[in-house]
Structures are given as structure tokens and as C-alpha cells.
Structure to design on (451 residues):
């Protein structure tokens, strides 16, 4: 009797315990899944550093996604991402790539298309020239984080002191004269800063535009290199001479970021580079010369009808990513209208990522904070990277600061290293151009050009 009663009591207790456990589970709901961690590869430019600093805001709004950042110097980023994409290693879920890579890689099937964006993303708000550069067969394969053309920055206080006036459209002859008159090496103020760090997207991005406006081009209509031509010799002679006489020491170590630091620190009288730097140079929290900075158009040489600079840094999803949904959530966030407003709130409107959305330029707050905004918008909207060079280009050739063929990444980097030697004095201009001509011709033959 007693043993039976005890057994029934134990059975009741077990049933009650089970019911309580089931009730608790029902109340709490199913165990929450672990957040998905995506790996994002990006460049160490100022706008991307801001993006990283806002990680907490993204993760709070999207608690099911976590971000692992890989932030690299520009040349290293390009090498790492290109290798990962081409070998299908799958290290990255989101990559930061330019409008050079996006169309080429999309045609190779290396990137996922953004073909189902929600209406609130507002694709129509993206500036047309930028959107077109990221589209293949009507589909977007990258979403623009920021876009740029190019312009001339200068110190208006130094120009006033020297009795100089910067025209709205300077020529390279005028820039040569200005640089000599405002250089003051004892005060460590240099007349001009230009990209000197070797790389297809560093010194060769600038030098390609210089060659174009001096009347040259990379290839003739049969795809044979024209690097030993007279326009190339004139352009490289100009570049080498002005950097040696009026540039900062160690110019071949200076890319976009290094020159940005030099100008913002008061060391450059002029700097010819990307329009994206304007937001940083006019920001008093990042620039000691924010109240003394002025701007003009990019200089021209004796040929003024050539291709014009258009670049965008974009976020794309490799086809190898197994976390497409989480990656897409992040990319839409970082390139959307709300992100622009978030940066404005956290960092000020002058720091908003430029060049991608018409709505940014329609903002009265942005126009007030960014006196350069109208100039930049016009430069990007009217940019024509497919413009004609003085002599006919090969069929299908395009690009202002690059040539839109897969081989250019290797060619540009090799030629950039060779031409940097003219600034350091290791090679004469003639020697450097001969080396670059022969190496490029060999690469093009091996690649089967003309095709």
C-alpha cells in the first residue's frame, strides 16, 4: 500500500515537472539561432573607416547578423580580393571593388546580381552614370558606396600670399607655374602633391588621365601598346619634373590616403585627385586647412576632349558566399538612404558618402555643409569614361583612369612600378618607357590580342 502510494506520487511529480518544462518552453519560445557572421573586405579609406565605426548601429538593427571586418591598404585589398574571387576560395561574403572590376567579374559569373532589391532601396535614386557602370545586361552586380570624379584642391591662403589666381579650368602649364611659386621647403610646404605609390589604381590612375590630356593613350586601334609615344614621354616628363622640384619627399610612397594626410595637415599647396576627398578636407575635425581649402576643375593639357575620370567603390557579393541573405542585408544598409542620414547624424553632413544618390545632393543640409557639392554632382553626372582619345582607341576599349580589360590590373601595376623609378632617379624616362612598352606588348601577345 505505502509503496504503491509512493509510486503514484512519484509519477504525478514527473508529469508535473514535464508539464512545467513544456510550459516554460512555450513561454520562452524556441532557442534563438546564433547570429550569422559575414566577412567584409574593404579599403582603409576614411569613408570606409566611418562605415566600420557604425557596426554597432547595424548590428543593433539586425541582431541576426554580425560583421567581421578585413580592412586593408588599397593595393593589398585588390590583390587579396582578386585572388579570392578568381580562385573561388570563398573567404569573403562582401567585397569592396571598383567599377573596373564589377562588369568584368560579373561576366565571369563571379558576382551575385542584385536583381530583387526592395522598392524602398530606390534604385532610381542612384546617379545614372554610376549605376550604368555597375550594370551588365540590365542587372546591378554591385551597389555603390561612394563615387567620384576628380578635381584640383588648392590652398587659397597660399595663392593670395603669392598673388596668384586659380582659374575655374586650370591648364597643366599654369599648375607647373603655380607649384613653383608656392613651394616653401623651409616651411615644409610643397607646391603640389600627386599620387606616386605604384599601382594600377594609385599612380597609374592619375598618370593615365595625364597621358590622355597630353594626347596619348595606352593602345592603338590594333591593341599594340603606345607607351613609347611622344605624348607618354611628355606626360611622364611633366610628372617627374614637377614632383622632383615641388613635390614632397618620398613621393613614391604616397597614394590617395597619404596625400590626403599631407594636404589636410597643411603640407600641400595643390593636390589633383578624387572628388571624394572634399568631404574630408572641408571637415574641421579631420583637416587643419578646412577654412583655407578651395577647388577648381582638373587641369587639362593640349587635348581637352578625352575620357573623364569616373570611379566608384562598391559593395558586391561573391558567388562563392554561402551567406547571401545576410550579406545582402548589410550591403543594402551600407548603400541606402538611411545610411547617408546616419553618417550625417553621427559625423556631420560634410562626411556623408558622396557621389551615389541624387537625394544626398537634394538635401539642403548637405548643400550647406558641402560647398563643393554642386561641382561634384555635375562632374559625376557628366563624366564620360568612354570619351574618345586624340587617336582612335581599339574597338571596345573604355575607361578614363584605366583600360577596361582583364589584363589591365597586371599591366597597370607593372608599369606603375617601372614609372615610379623615374621619380626616384633609378631610371631615365626613356628607359622606363621602353621597359613598360616591351612588358606590356608581351602580356598582350600572351593574352591573344587583338581578339
Amino acid at each position: 500500500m505505502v509503496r504503491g502510494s509512493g509510486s503514484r506520487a512519484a509519477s504525478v511529480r514527473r508529469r508535473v515537472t514535464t508539464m512545467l518544462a513544456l510550459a516554460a518552453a512555450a513561454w520562452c519560445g524556441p532557442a534563438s539561432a546564433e547570429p550569422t557572421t559575414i566577412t567584409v573586405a574593404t579599403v582603409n579609406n576614411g569613408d570606409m573607416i566611418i562605415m566600420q565605426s557604425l557596426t554597432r548601429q547595424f548590428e543593433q538593427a539586425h541582431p541576426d547578423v554580425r560583421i567581421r571586418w578585413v580592412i586593408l591598404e588599397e593595393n593589398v585589398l585588390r590583390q587579396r580580393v582578386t585572388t579570392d574571387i578568381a580562385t573561388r576560395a570563398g573567404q569573403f561574403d562582401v567585397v569592396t571593388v571598383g567599377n573596373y572590376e564589377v562588369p568584368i567579374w560579373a561576366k565571369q559569373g563571379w558576382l551575385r546580381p542584385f536583381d530583387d532589391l526592395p522598392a524602398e532601396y530606390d534604385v532610381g535614386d542612384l546617379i545614372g552614370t554610376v549605376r550604368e557602370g555597375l550594370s551588365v545586361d540590365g542587372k546591378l552586380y554591385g551597389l555603390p558606396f561612394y563615387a567620384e570624379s576628380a578635381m584640383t584642391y588648392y590652398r587659397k591662403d597660399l595663392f593670395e600670399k603669392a598673388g596668384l589666381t586659380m582659374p575655374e579650368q586650370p591648364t597643366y602649364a599654369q599648375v607647373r607655374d603655380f607649384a613653383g611659386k608656392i613651394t616653401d621647403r623651409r616651411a615644409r610646404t610643397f607646391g603640389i602633391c600627386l599620387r606616386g605609390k605604384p599601382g594600377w589604381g594609385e599612380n597609374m590612375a592619375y598618370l593615365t588621365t595625364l597621358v590622355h590630356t597630353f594626347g596619348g593613350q595606352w593602345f592603338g586601334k590594333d591593341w599594340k601598346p603606345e607607351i613609347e609615344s611622344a605624348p607618354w614621354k611628355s606626360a611622364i616628363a611633366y610628372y617627374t619634373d614637377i614632383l622632383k622640384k615641388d613635390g614632397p619627399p618620398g613621393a613614391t610612397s604616397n597614394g590617395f590616403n597619404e596625400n590626403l594626410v599631407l594636404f589636410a595637415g597643411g603640407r600641400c599647396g595643390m593636390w589633383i585627385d578624387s572628388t571624394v576627398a572634399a568631404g574630408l578636407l572641408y571637415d574641421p575635425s579631420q583637416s587643419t586647412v578646412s577654412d583655407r581649402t578651395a577647388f577648381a576643375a582638373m587641369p587639362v593639357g593640349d587635348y581637352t576632349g578625352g575620357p573623364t575620370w569616373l570611379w566608384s567603390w562598391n559593395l558586391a557579393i561573391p558567388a562563392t558566399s554561402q551567406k547571401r541573405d545576410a550579406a545582402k542585408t548589410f550591403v543594402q544598409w551600407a548603400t541606402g538612404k538611411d545610411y547617408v542620414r546616419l553618417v550625417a547624424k553621427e559625423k556631420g553632413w560634410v562626411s556623408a558618402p558622396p557621389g551615389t544618390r541624387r537625394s544626398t545632393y537634394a538635401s539642403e543640409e548637405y548643400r550647406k555643409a558641402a560647398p563643393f557639392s554642386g561641382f561634384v554632382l555635375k562632374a559625376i553626372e557628366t563624366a564620360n569614361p568612354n570619351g574618345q582619345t586624340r587617336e582612335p582607341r581599339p574597338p571596345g576599349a573604355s575607361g578614363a583612369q584605366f583600360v577596361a580589360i582583364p589584363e589591365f590590373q597586371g599591366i597597370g601595376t607593372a608599369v606603375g612600378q617601372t614609372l615610379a623609378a623615374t621619380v626616384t632617379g633609378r631610371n631615365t624616362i626613356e628607359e622606363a618607357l621602353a621597359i613598360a612598352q616591351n612588358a606590356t606588348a608581351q602580356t598582350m601577345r600572351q593574352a591573344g590580342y587583338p581578339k
Notes: Confidence is low (pLDDT under 50) at residues 1-10, 16-31. The radius of gyration is 27 Å. Strands lie at 36-43, 65-72, 94-98, 135-136, 139-140, 143-148, 150-155, 270-274, 293-297, 311-316.
